[in-house]
Design goal:
alpha+beta; Polyamine Oxidase, Chain A, domain 2; 6-stranded mixed β-sheet; 5-stranded antiparallel β-sheet; about 20% strand
């Protein structure tokens, strides 16, 4: 008879844990308090359009995301637009990596960068070479700002700071340099295609959570929506009861506060550590301009005190109607404090300054979405909670201790790892 395993929370980590647990031979039940799966990367309906609660970029190095997507039937070659890494501004300046191995392509892209002086390009080339020679390692106490302090201001403003905000959702002066370099290592220091951008051509729920739910149900697993777990109790000798139902093992794939609520009577130290995490918001401003079409599906923007967005996505080139744009503000605490109306107004002004050749006024704001607890603040020396909570009780999520910041790949890897830990412990 199969061992029974409950996964509580059906975000990307929970869906990954459930799929992997079925592969490991468990009889799986997946609990989700909402009507939809996907957590902080899911579909939202805006004015009749199936869009997302935020923009998520995948990378070629996201091997576990891609593996599980394919396993549950996602057509990754069709549902993801794959291009070499390009961080291009509307005026054509920026980095354009060619095909092939990322590290040589990066050096060529830096050398060919438009808009920078020869000294600025050489400074970044020297720094990139130094990071490579040091195997993308640094002192754990360094911030990204300290790591890059000797780079020219323009290089930091136009490349490092927006890249850090996108990868870690943490301002450079607070972000962990060690984690930043680890991300660079895996995207630039791996094999061909690892640095490629993978832009979703469908809404995020269709990219993994919904196909995962269908796959699980076909495999005999149970997916219980609209069920917020209220009680987690010990069940002799080594199992657990989830709202009174007996299981041999449990994976808490819910947000850290919710996981802490459930496990506090059994693992108070773990609960305290989970609740000590600080979080940073991300804001997405959806706006529409008739007939607008950007030169790339994604453009970098010049962000500063009066210009909030770091990137804009042309959803008309992905999975939306022509003219629909999504402006992304990472590390958004300062703008959230100003209010969504002021933020949206600042985005419109920024768009008309930087994208005027592609926009015919007016630019109409459709909706601004703030994900208040989008990711944990990825600061130097951060102690994240362990995947092991108690006997037969594990945690999964992008907040769990691991090599990645709060990304889809980090969440999926944490889910897979928790299912494998459960299998190794029980068999």
């Amino acid at each position: 008879m199969s061992q029974r395993l409950a996964v509580i929370g059906a975000g990307w980590a929970g869906c990954a844990a459930a799929v992997q647990a079925v592969d490991e031979g468990f009889d799986v039940t997946l609990y989700e308090m909402a009507s939809h799966l996907g957590g902080r990367a899911r579909r939202v309906d805006i004015e009749g359009l199936a869009l997302d609660n935020g923009q998520h970029i995948l990378m070629g190095a996201y091997t576990e995301c891609l593996r599980l997507m394919r396993q549950v039937g996602v057509r990754t070659t069709l549902d993801l637009l794959r291009t070499p890494l390009q961080l291009i501004h509307a005026d054509g300046s920026g980095l354009r990596l060619g095909a092939g191995r990322a590290a040589p392509a990066l050096l060529k892209a830096i050398a060919a960068q438009r808009g920078w002086t020869r000294g600025e390009r050489l400074a970044l080339l020297r720094q990139a070479t130094l990071w490579t020679l040091r195997r993308f390692r640094c002192a754990p106490e360094l911030t990204v700002a300290q790591l890059c302090a000797n780079l020219p201001v323009r290089v930091r403003d136009e490349l490092i700071d927006p890249l850090c905000a996108a990868a870690l959702n943490t301002p450079a002066h607070r972000a962990s340099a060690a984690v930043f370099l680890r991300v660079l290592r895996d995207t630039l220091g791996s094999g061909p295609g690892s640095s490629d951008l993978l832009l979703p051509r469908t809404h995020l729920s269709a990219l993994f959570p919904d196909p995962a739910a269908r796959w699980l149900e076909r495999a005999g697993a149970r997916v219980r929506r609209h069920h917020r777990v209220t009680a987690l109790q010990r069940h002799a000798p080594h199992g657990w009861r989830v709202d009174g139902e007996a299981y041999d093992a449990v994976i808490l794939a819910c947000p850290p506060g919710e996981a802490a609520r459930l496990c506090r009577p059994h693992a108070p130290a773990w609960a305290e550590q989970a609740e000590s995490l600080s979080f940073e918001p991300i804001v997405t401003v959806y706006a529409h301009a008739d007939g607008a079409r950007l030169p790339q599906p994604m453009l970098a923007l010049r962000s500063h005190d009066a210009a909030p967005a770091q990137y804009v996505f042309d959803r008309g080139q992905l999975n939306g109607p022509t003219g629909l744009l999504a402006f992304v503000i990472s590390a958004a605490s300062p703008w959230v404090s100003r209010g969504l109306e002021a933020t949206a107004q600042a985005v419109c002004e920024q768009a008309h300054r930087e994208l005027s050749r592609y926009l015919r006024p007016p630019l109409r704001v459709i909706r601004s979405i703030v994900e208040k607890r989008a990711t944990f603040l990825c600061e130097p020396g951060l102690q994240r909670p362990s995947a092991t909570i108690a006997p037969s009780l594990w945690a999964a999520g992008d907040h769990v201790n691991g090599p990645y910041p709060a990304t889809l790949e980090g969440a999926v890897r944490a889910g897979v790892a928790a299912a494998r830990l459960a299998a190794a412990s029980l068999w």
